[in-house]
């Protein structure tokens, strides 16, 4: 049985439906991210789990108990927001211990649990400092320790890393995952950053216009996006219009100009208009005259670990990412090249699935 279950949960502001029939079952110990563009209803969903926003329709269950209309403070969930919301006049230790005091935990146990929580976020030497004496990343770790110290059944994170600079943000992603694995707290995180969602979650929920459009493990989501929207929102891709011209033995042949590709035929019918999705890192630049498409290098960019090429091809402009691993000479702008890819990496999406 799911530990946290949202059953056809909807939220209306007046006549405006901002979350629609949202279903989600989360296992104990799972890390699930709600990912989607601004305004798609991520925060509202989290707020309904927390109890800060009323549920208009539907039901939320925690460990088999209906909590749909339970007051937020009696749900006992751990919450970390984008703004750390630490008490500025209290030391780090006092901030962390606050929730235990409110729950009337005896002093000795409070001291021990606060020490453990600060050690978990690697701030055991910072207990006597004030929030203003800490960096952004350290403050966010204090906020995490404060949320975890009460041993909440569920930890809710709303864009917890978005105030941090890029490098610290990446470090904190792994740190967050390490801590979550160690304590095993069921966690729901809101983010609009697809790389963050993919790198630290067990499962990702992509939301669009208040609905969950795909719920999958990160690799599955990236490799098998169910719509054009997801294929471009989760990672980048080249989309080329095509048509199903053959169906046999579960395989479909899709044509785009002179190109024919074989793809999984599930759900496709002869004559269907489709979008062929070619991920930039799956495309391989080969010498001119080889590969599946003749191209020329229009633009190249150096990204450090990779080269990014814009190639002119018979299918139009294609973006290609090539590793900077020293195995191949980088191409120059104007070079004639070929483009190849391994069998099975091409995906096909129903045309119009962006909606
Ligand atoms: N109190 C409110 N009253 C009316 N509409 C609201 C209220 N709170 C949120 N909304 C609307 O609900 C929709 C979803 O908002 P929500 O904050 O859940 O989106 P989000 O996906 O978290 O976006 P962001 O990434 O920008 O934070 C938006 O259109 C927003 O304008």
UniProtKB/TrEMBL annotation:
Q: Which domain of life is it from?
A: Bacteria
List, in alphabetical order, the GO biological process terms annotated in this UniProt record.
quaternary ammonium group transport
Looking up InterPro entries in the UniProt record yields: AAA+_ATPase, ABC_SmlMolc_Importer, ABC_transporter-like_ATP-bd, ABC_transporter-like_CS, Mo/tungstate-bd_C_term_dom, NA-bd_OB-fold, P-loop_NTPase, Transp-assoc_OB_typ2
Domain ABC transporter per the UniProt entry, residue ranges = 4-234
- Keywords recorded for this protein, A-Z: ATP-binding, Cell membrane, Membrane, Nucleotide-binding, Transport
Q: Which Pfam families does the protein's record reference?
A: ABC_tran (PF00005), TOBE_2 (PF08402)
> What are its GO cellular component terms?
ATP-binding cassette (ABC) transporter complex
GO molecular function term, any single one: ATP hydrolysis activity
Protein's name according to its UniProt entry: ABC transporter ATP-binding protein
Task: Print the organism lineage.
Answer: Bacteria, Pseudomonadati, Pseudomonadota, Betaproteobacteria, Burkholderiales
